[in-house]
């Protein structure tokens, strides 16, 4: 049975919540990815996630300037995380039930 760890992206790219959306877009373009994990502010904090969809729906659609908006203003937090041992079937069900397309795989 295939597991989340078998299909996950191993090189995760992160960004600070205080970074601008313009910086996030630049990093996504540079790395050719569609989502960034937002760093925790401290050990007890949760990870966040910011996606292309967040940027389009929460910034571009409203005519906001990506240089003036911070990642923390549009990210999802806490983000749903997936255990690497979880079967792909259950990952697919989770994504379908919650309506998401990506989630960090964290042990």
Automatic annotation (TrEMBL):
The keyword Repeat does not apply. It comes from the Bacteria. Residues 8-66 form the CBS domain. InterPro entries: CBS_dom, CBS_dom_sf, Diverse_CBS-Domain. Keywords: CBS domain. The keyword Zinc does not apply. This is CBS domain-containing protein. It comes from Amazonocrinis nigriterrae CENA67. The lineage of its organism: Bacteria, Bacillati, Cyanobacteriota, Cyanophyceae, Nostocales.
